[in-house]
């Protein structure tokens, strides 16, 4: 397994919200970054967004100011992944695009290169079938935004090897992240619990029992949560919430995970949360 404790090149597949956030974190810790996306528009947006995120993180003390930021290159194909010490897949939360991205990366990297999937609900072992060396694949569920939230949920798939598990730990330590290792399964720990809570909160609003403001005020005021479930959903992206719930519903046959009508309506209307300026709450500007 390739050593990732030095400032090696980090390749990130997917230039959406999470891909940009992980790029910010890696570059801010001195790693050169290759950001890969088949959509040139996403890459253009990332090149505009990541420097702003990096400055904000440094200003807030979340990333060091005395570390020279790593360079960020972009590409629309996996050519160049052979120079990466670690590959992080962060494409949309659906199995087909994730499997395609990981399969292409597996063919392009050097043998033994650490492959990380940032899946938030799809079991790692399902994705392991798409790569040439399943033992090199491990889950690392970064929270949004990853340059502010220091703890990462590491998911060990059934075929994840000891070397990959050690390598992901070294990589996260180099990024100054803490991590907790959990077993594989739909939603792992965080989203198995969180997505049901978000879904139920949306149902409460849809039934007219409470406003989104009231729901979140109860969670922050009574339970001490920093952010309520619906503001958390807006931060995640309501499209991603629906994707995760769909995965959980299909893998568990539990009706509690079927996306609520209100969530589906908001996604259909394009009200996806912070990234679009409107979700359960209104936002003056997108991050």
UniProtKB/TrEMBL annotation:
<comment type="pathway">
    <text>Lipid metabolism; butanoate metabolism.</text>
</comment>
<feature type="binding site">
    <location>
        <position position="98"/>
    </location>
    <ligand>
        <name>NAD(+)</name>
    </ligand>
</feature>
<feature type="binding site">
    <location>
        <position position="144"/>
    </location>
    <ligand>
        <name>NAD(+)</name>
    </ligand>
</feature>
<dbReference type="GO" id="GO:0070403">
    <property type="term" value="F:NAD+ binding"/>
</dbReference>
<keyword id="KW-0560">Oxidoreductase</keyword>
<dbReference type="Pfam" id="PF02737">
    <property type="entry name" value="3HCDH_N"/>
</dbReference>
<dbReference type="InterPro" id="IPR036291">
    <property type="entry name" value="NAD(P)-bd_dom_sf"/>
</dbReference>
<dbReference type="InterPro" id="IPR022694">
    <property type="entry name" value="3-OHacyl-CoA_DH"/>
</dbReference>
<feature type="binding site">
    <location>
        <position position="93"/>
    </location>
    <ligand>
        <name>NAD(+)</name>
    </ligand>
</feature>
<dbReference type="InterPro" id="IPR006108">
    <property type="entry name" value="3HC_DH_C"/>
</dbReference>
<protein>
    <submittedName>
        <fullName>3-hydroxyacyl-CoA dehydrogenase</fullName>
    </submittedName>
</protein>
<feature type="domain" description="3-hydroxyacyl-CoA dehydrogenase NAD binding">
    <location>
        <begin position="10"/>
        <end position="184"/>
    </location>
</feature>
<feature type="binding site">
    <location>
        <position position="275"/>
    </location>
    <ligand>
        <name>NAD(+)</name>
    </ligand>
</feature>
<feature type="domain" description="3-hydroxyacyl-CoA dehydrogenase C-terminal">
    <location>
        <begin position="187"/>
        <end position="283"/>
    </location>
</feature>
<keyword id="KW-0520">NAD</keyword>
<dbReference type="GO" id="GO:0006631">
    <property type="term" value="P:fatty acid metabolic process"/>
</dbReference>
<feature type="site" description="Important for catalytic activity">
    <location>
        <position position="141"/>
    </location>
</feature>
<feature type="binding site">
    <location>
        <position position="120"/>
    </location>
    <ligand>
        <name>NAD(+)</name>
    </ligand>
</feature>
<dbReference type="InterPro" id="IPR008927">
    <property type="entry name" value="6-PGluconate_DH-like_C_sf"/>
</dbReference>
<dbReference type="GO" id="GO:0016616">
    <property type="term" value="F:oxidoreductase activity, acting on the CH-OH group of donors, NAD or NADP as acceptor"/>
</dbReference>
<dbReference type="InterPro" id="IPR006176">
    <property type="entry name" value="3-OHacyl-CoA_DH_NAD-bd"/>
</dbReference>
<comment type="similarity">
    <text>Belongs to the 3-hydroxyacyl-CoA dehydrogenase family.</text>
</comment>
<dbReference type="InterPro" id="IPR013328">
    <property type="entry name" value="6PGD_dom2"/>
</dbReference>
<feature type="binding site">
    <location>
        <position position="37"/>
    </location>
    <ligand>
        <name>NAD(+)</name>
    </ligand>
</feature>
<feature type="binding site">
    <location>
        <begin position="14"/>
        <end position="19"/>
    </location>
    <ligand>
        <name>NAD(+)</name>
    </ligand>
</feature>
<dbReference type="Pfam" id="PF00725">
    <property type="entry name" value="3HCDH"/>
</dbReference>
């Amino acid at each position: 397994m390739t050593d990732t404790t030095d400032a090696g090149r980090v390749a990130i597949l997917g230039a959406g919200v999470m891909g940009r956030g992980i790029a910010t974190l890696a570059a801010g810790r001195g790693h050169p970054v290759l950001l890969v996306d088949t959509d040139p528009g996403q890459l253009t947006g990332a090149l505009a967004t990541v420097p702003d995120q990096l400055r904000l993180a440094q200003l807030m003390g979340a990333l060091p100011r005395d570390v020279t930021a790593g360079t960020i290159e972009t590409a629309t194909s996996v050519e160049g992944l052979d120079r990466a010490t670690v590959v992080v897949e962060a494409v949309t939360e659906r199995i087909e695009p994730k499997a395609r991205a990981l399969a292409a990366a597996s063919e392009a990297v050097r043998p033994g290169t650490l492959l990380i999937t940032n899946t938030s609900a799809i079991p790692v072992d399902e994705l392991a079938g798409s790569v040439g060396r399943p033992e090199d694949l491990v889950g690392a569920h970064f929270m949004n935004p990853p340059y502010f939230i220091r703890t990462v949920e590491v998911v060990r798939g059934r075929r994840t090897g000891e070397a990959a598990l050690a390598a992901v730990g070294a990589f996260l330590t180099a990024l100054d992240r803490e991590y907790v290792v959990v077993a594989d399964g739909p939603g792992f720990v965080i989203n198995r619990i969180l997505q049901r809570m978000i879904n139920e909160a949306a149902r409460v609003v849809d039934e007219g029992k409470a406003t989104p403001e009231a729901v979140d005020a109860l969670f922050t005021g009574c339970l001490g949560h920093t952010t309520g479930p619906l503001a958390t959903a807006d931060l995640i992206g309501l499209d991603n919430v629906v994707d995760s719930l769909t995965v959980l519903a299909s893998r568990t046959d539990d009706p509690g995970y079927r996306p609520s009508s209100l969530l589906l309506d908001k996604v259909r209307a394009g009200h996806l949360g912070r990234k679009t300026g409107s979700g359960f709450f209104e936002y003056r500007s997108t991050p």
